[in-house]
Specification:
This protein has 471 residues and is an alpha/beta fold. The protein is built from 19 helices and twelve strands.
């Protein structure tokens, strides 16, 4: 039966997504992307233009949440007035449109917000919404967008607190980054997190060359350039459509994958005819890249706890024309663990983590994490490494990777592992990475990338070798 869309606007649907997201406790929230797509699918059909607008509004509001709320709260007559999630969500969208979107007239942003609160049985708030948004619009008209976004008149004497608000990150996160990196580097990191990430592809060199894909993209008017570090990378700027609509996707010419994630597979240095374990395979971005690097000759066992992710991995494997991957649910793998001791030449542990290195792609992550969650994740990460170590054969390599730069989840996990496993040693990342990426190996031998406007996501990897020690 065909779904019939109720008569709501794209802005009202965006508000519905934000209201739902705000109502869920942070630790239990679905990823914002999935939540948004679920709403779009269940309320459609929507035009491509409306779908793009919904995504832009939802992700823009969550990206700039703290700054938007500061502008709203500073313009309320009663600063202690508690707004309902419904009213606040419509205000957030309106303020975001006024401060960040040039193509939408201020009057349209104000009027749509008023319509939104009226349609949700909050007509009493229409005057408040009108007043707040018109004050924001007046400031934008008189000062311009950049100056209007700033909080100078809001009396925030502490510069770390002001940075947290103006760059819209949790204060605890900014505070620890300032202690680690210094104020200016933290500002640069936050600014990089607030820039929408480019679409990055990994060319499937089993079927096509990078040059050919670049030519096809250029022929279709897509602005694409080679990556800076990995030989299969293509970076696309200014593309807002679905990657599945790009020519070559159905032919298996490429996989969407950030350049830093691609470099993790190089850290593993896989070889043809080896037996390799991807212990936290997810959707299989790194799994299929490893298969590429061994020219589809060998055995790769991909394990994950989530059946839906393994199903998507199988679909990607088929689309890319890869045969050497076997998908194994975690329960099945775990029951056979004792039989697998010494089986693998190489193991990739792309560990569950805070994801604070990929905030620019997933802005909701920063609002879902706490200091306590970092410690909880570190315990899981240590357990993973300790549990997988017996499965490697002598001389084998295990790579521990995480899309975060937090010490509790990266260097400290590796140091704890090495301190309790005398037969394991650290291999310098520069010995494994492509020559173009040697500068991404730090002084301790780890692979580290820090988010920057034209660079890859934030990632960490340590290369560990199991070596027999003879007396």
């Amino acid at each position: 039966m065909r779904k019939v869309r109720s008569r709501i606007t794209a802005r009202q649907l965006a508000a519905s997504v934000l209201i739902k997201w705000d109502d869920i406790p942070p630790a239990r929230r679905l990823p914002l992307r999935k939540l948004t797509e679920d709403f779009l699918r269940n309320s459609g059909p929507w035009s491509a233009r409306d779908r793009a607008l919904v995504r832009e509004l939802v992700f823009g509001v969550v990206r700039w949440l703290a700054l938007l709320d500061r502008h709203i709260d500073s313009r309320l007559i009663s600063r202690n007035k508690r707004l309902s999630n419904i009213v606040r969500s419509h205000l957030r969208i309106g303020v975001f449109q006024i401060l960040f979107l040039d193509r939408i007239p201020f009057s349209a942003a104000v009027n749509e917000a008023i319509k939104g609160v009226k349609s949700s049985n909050h007509a009493w708030a229409s005057g408040l919404v009108n007043a707040v948004l018109r004050r924001v619009a007046e400031k934008r008209e008189s000062l311009g967008p950049e100056m209007a976004r700033r909080c100078e008149e809001m009396m925030i004497p502490d510069r770390v607190e002001r940075l947290a608000i103006e760059q819209s990150h949790p204060f605890w996160m900014i505070n620890r980054w300032v202690s680690r990196y210094g104020f200016e580097k933290t500002r640069s990191l936050c600014m990089a997190n607030n820039i929408q990430a480019p679409l990055t592809l990994r060319v499937n060199t089993l079927t096509v060359t990078r040059d050919k894909v670049l030519k096809v993209l250029a022929d279709h008017g897509i602005d694409a350039v080679p990556g800076r570090y990995a030989p299969e990378t293509i970076v696309i700027s200014g593309y807002s459509g679905s990657p599945m609509a790009i020519s070559g996707f159905k032919k298996g010419w490429f996989q969407v994958q950030d350049e830093a994630a691609q470099l993790v597979s190089y850290c593993l240095a896989p070889r043809s005819n080896e037996i390799i374990l991807d212990a936290c395979a997810g959707l299989g971005g790194k799994t299929t890249h490893i298969a590429q690097l061994i020219r589809d000759h060998g055995i790769i066992e991909a394990v994950d706890m989530n059946y839906a992710r393994l199903k998507l991995l199988k679909e990607n494997q088929k689309r890319l024309g890869i045969k050497c991957i076997s998908c194994i649910p975690f329960e099945s793998f775990n029951t056979r663990r004792s039989e697998l001791e010494g089986r693998y030449h190489r193991i990739l542990v792309d560990a569950p983590c805070s994801g604070l290195g990929v905030i620019r792609r997933h802005p909701d992550i920063k609002w879902n994490r706490t200091m306590a969650s970092l410690s909880e994740l570190a315990c899981q990460q240590r357990s993973l490494l300790n549990g997988l170590a017996p499965l490697i054969r002598p001389g084998g390599i295990m790579v521990y990777a995480a899309c975060t730069l937090e010490p509790e989840e990266t260097k400290q996990v590796v140091e704890d592992f090495l301190s309790s496993h005398a037969q394991w040693g650290l291999v310098a990342a520069k010995d494994m990475l492509p020559a173009e990426a040697n500068n991404l190996a730090d002084k301790d031998g780890f692979f580290v990338t820090v988010p920057e406007s034209q660079g890859p996501d934030g990632f960490f990897a340590a290369i560990l070798r199991y070596q027999i020690i003879r007396n």
